[in-house]
Amino acid sequence: MMKQLLTPDYIFESSWEVCNKVGGIYTVLSTRAKTLESAFPGRIFFIGPDVWLGKENPLFSEDDSLFAKWREHALKVNGLRLRIGRWNIPGKPYAILVDFTPFFAQKNDIYTQAWADFRVDSLHAYGDYDEASMFSYAAGKVVESYYRFCLKSTDKVVYQAHEWMTGLGALYVQKAVPAIATIFTTHATSIGRSIAGNNKPLYDYLFAYNGDQMAGELNMQSKHSIEKQTAHHVDCFTTVSEITNNECKELLDKAADVVLMNGFEDDFVPQGRKFTDARKKARKLMLEVANKLLGTDLGDDTLIVGTSGRYEFKNKGINVYVEALNRLTRDKNLKKQVLAFINVPGWVGEAREDLVERLKSKEKFTTPLPVPYITHWLHNMSHDQVLDMLKYLNMSNAPESQVKVIFVPCYLNGNDGILNRAYYDVVIGNDLSVYPSYYEPWGYTPLESVAFHVPTITTDLAGFGRWVDSVLGHSGELQDGVKVIHRTDYNYSEVADTIKDTITLFSGMNKKEIDAIRNKAAKISEKALWKHFIQYYYEAYDIALRKAAERQKKQK
């Protein structure tokens, strides 16, 4: 018989990315909110940093009437300056934005207490550590204040903190309000990401790395310390994939109690006729930008390939993608012209005026613009990794080359000056996407791609890739909708060849074969909807609530 899971009456979640779009965690929280809001209507609160002070935040709608008495109390008694409203996402959950700057004055006392209570080492702090920690502490104070002012001692409350940046607050809540059940989710270990980003082999030697020792070597002591101590002390420690759980075991000396895989909602994917129209528009736009930049006449039978994500040249596999495209230029079996996009935000300056002028013109151009492989000028044109590699490989988009590469180095927010479309309105136009990550705890970009019926190439070093293999029961092939390449610390060249061969194979397929693959891709994405993955959160709530109940018993 299955045990009855304990469920919370109230849920608080804190993250630097609440009402603040930075990266993948925003996608996790914002797509899951609707599912939780329908299960716990009006009882889930997201706490974020008020980093938009004095500016209009398009993601947040303030409402002065919400919890007005508590807000006054929190300011008067706890010194908390709060803005309360709704997060402008599906489900419209409550959002509390806290001004954490007043806590900088108490920073040393806060750190001293964290050392005394939990052995958190803040001595080596630098960079964003202080800012994140003061927000984290402020978020903990918000939960404590709300609990004492608005709730009953019989209410079951869960506080979930995301990433090392919110660890301090989770530990504070656990000590200050022992009745509240705490959950800590690491989306990537700070030390694992650092090892990978510093070009050290992560996977073959994972068993031999000592997290504390590596933190010293890579100057990561404070971030590693708060992450490790939070993982060990909270009621329930979680991460987002089995591959990251391996890191947690080795580098934090603590396995996750539950793996909370990242789902999504597909309400952003247009249906039926709208889908067809959106795809046509996206392809027309991408081909037009390419033809005006290159002075070519690429037609609708061009194979459009894309990659996107954060600018982590090695970790996201941008380097191996470019290498694969370089090898593709010499592949005699390639059956179509290939137009490959790199949609990765760099240190962008402004949209190219010469390209803007051409896009306004109805004329067909037969000569390329100077530097015919980038849509926006960068502040660091001579020191950019993508441009450096294109130059090194002599990939200049020569007229005779069957493979053309275009770097779009900006956020696709609908207002970039060239494409002027949101990311989802562009990605739908791809025929194939490539995300050959070396370090990727989950991997939303390939998941979003298959949701738009675009087959994708990823690796088994991405949490998503590994999950696909487990769903299929074998290593994903192109015919499955997701090609999952086996990747190690040392098989870069083999991965590049496999990407090249997969694109070539795809270029020779007929419409019927491609349609079957597109449908398979979409079916895989349906298995990752939040309605399937939310159960893991319920398990985490149960574990945390039971631990908190035990703690209460001991203290009585």
Tell me about the largest β-sheet: 9 strands, mixed
Strand content: 5-15%
For the biggest β-sheet, the strand order reads 3-4-5-2-1-6-7-8-9
**Low-pLDDT stretches:** none
Short description, anyone?
The protein has 19 helices and 17 strands. It is globular.
What distinguishing features does this structure have?
six-stranded parallel β-sheet; single chain; 556 residues; alpha/beta; nine-stranded mixed β-sheet; 17 strands; 43% helix; 19 helices
Describe the structure.
This protein is 43% helix and 15% strand. Helix 1 links the parallel strand 1 and strand 2. The mean pLDDT is 96. The chain has 19 helices and 17 strands. Helix 4 runs parallel beside helix 5. Strands 3-4-5-2-1-6-7-8-9 form a nine-stranded mixed sheet, sandwiched between helices. Strands 14-11-10-15-16-17 form a six-stranded parallel sheet, sandwiched between helices. It has 556 residues and is α/β, with parallel strands linked by helices.
Write the layout of secondary structure elements.
Blueprint: E1 10-14, H1 24-39, E2 44-49, E3 60-62, H2 68-78, E4 81-87, E5 94-99, H3 107-118, H4 129-150, E6 157-162, H5 167-176, E7 181-186, H6 190-197, H7 211-217, H8 221-233, E8 236-239, H9 242-251, E9 258-259, H10 272-294, E10 303-308, H11 318-328, E11 338-343, E12 348-351, H12 353-360, E13 376-378, H13 385-392, E14 403-408, H14 423-427, E15 432-434, H15 444-451, E16 456-459, H16 463-472, E17 482-485, H17 492-507, H18 511-526, H19 530-555
Parallel strand pairs: 1-2, 1-6, 2-5, 6-7, 7-8, 8-9, 10-11, 10-15, 11-14, 15-16, 16-17
Antiparallel strand pairs: 3-4, 4-5, 12-13
